[in-house]
Amino acid sequence: MSVLVGKKAPVFKAPAVIDGNTIVENFSLEEYLGKKYVVFFFYPADFTFVCPTELHAFQEKLGEFESRNTVVVACSTDSAVSHWKWLQTPKKEGGINGVTYPVVADHALTISMAYDVLAGEFDSDETTGDPLFVGSPEAYRGLFLIDKSGIVRHQVVNDMPLGRSVDEILRVIDALQFTEEYGEVCPANWHKGEKGLSATQEGIASYLSEK
Q1: According to its UniProt record, which residues of this chain constitute the active site (predicted)?
Q2: Which end of the chain is more exposed for a tag (fewer CB within 10 A), N or C?
Q3: What is the pLDDT of residue 1?
Q4: Is 183 exposed, middle or buried (0-12, 13-18, 19+ CB in 10 A)?
C-alpha cells in the first residue's frame, strides 16, 4: 500500500454524479485547487451494506465540512449509471437518496490504482499471456485529506467490513487547520478548542507537566 501523505494527490478526470442527480463526464478534484480542502473517500460498491451507512453519515455532517471550507467527494468502481440509480433509491430500500456531494465513477479502475486502494491487480495468464484481473475489482475503504495546494495530508485505509468515523475525519481537519493557522502541533486526542504545543523540548515539557 502506497503512502501518499506529503505527495501531490493523483490527478484524474472521470464521470461523476453531482447534486444527487446530474451525471458529468469530466469531473476532477483540480477544480478545488487553491480554494478548498478535499475529503476524497473510496467505498467498495453501490447497493451494498456498510457503504450506504457511510455515505449517509458524511451527508449528515456535510454542513460541518462546509464550515471548515472542505468538500466531500466519494468514489467507487461502479459506473456513473449505477451511482445515479443508487442515488434515486430511497433510504428505506438501502439507497443513498439525499446525498448531494459528488460520487465519482472509477469504472476503469484507474483512480483506485493511482491511490493504491484497489483490492486486486492486473496480471497475465501464464499459459496464454492474456491479461486477467486477480482479486476483487473494488476499492478498499480508503480516505485522503487533501489540502488547498493539492497535497495529501492524511490517509487511512480500512478493510471492506470496517466502516469509518466521520467525527474522526472532522477532528483531523481541525488539527490540520489549527497547525496551519498557529504553527503549533496537535498532541494525542487533540480536539478543536484545546491547546496545541510548540514543537520544542520546552513545549512538550510544559504540556506534559499539565497532564
Answers
A1: 51 (cysteine sulfenic acid (-soh) intermediate)
A2: C
A3: 64
A4: exposed
One-letter amino acid of 10: P
Distance (Å, whole) CA 147 – CA 210: 32
pLDDT in tens, 122-146: 777 777 777 777 888 999 999 999 9
Helices assigned H by DSSP within 89-200: 110-114, 166-182
- Calculate the CA 102 to chain-centre distance: 12
Grid coordinates standing for 195?
491547546
Which string of DSSP letters, residue by residue, matches 18-73?
ETTTEEEEEE-GGGGTTT-EEEEEE-S-SS-SHHHHHHHHHHHTHHHHHHTTEEEE
Least Cα distance to 154 among 173, 139, 167 occurs for: 173
Interacting residues of 29 by C-beta distance below 8 A, sequence separation 6+ = 9, 11, 12, 38, 40, 73, 146, 150
CA distance 74 to 142: 10
Q: Point out the residues that are catalytic.
A: 51
CA distance 177 to 96: 30
**pLDDT tens, 58-109?**
999 999 999 999 999 999 999 999 999 999 999 999 999 999 999 999 999 9
The answer to whether the beta carbons of residues 12 and 110 sit under 8 Å apart is yes
Percent of the chain with pLDDT over 70: 100
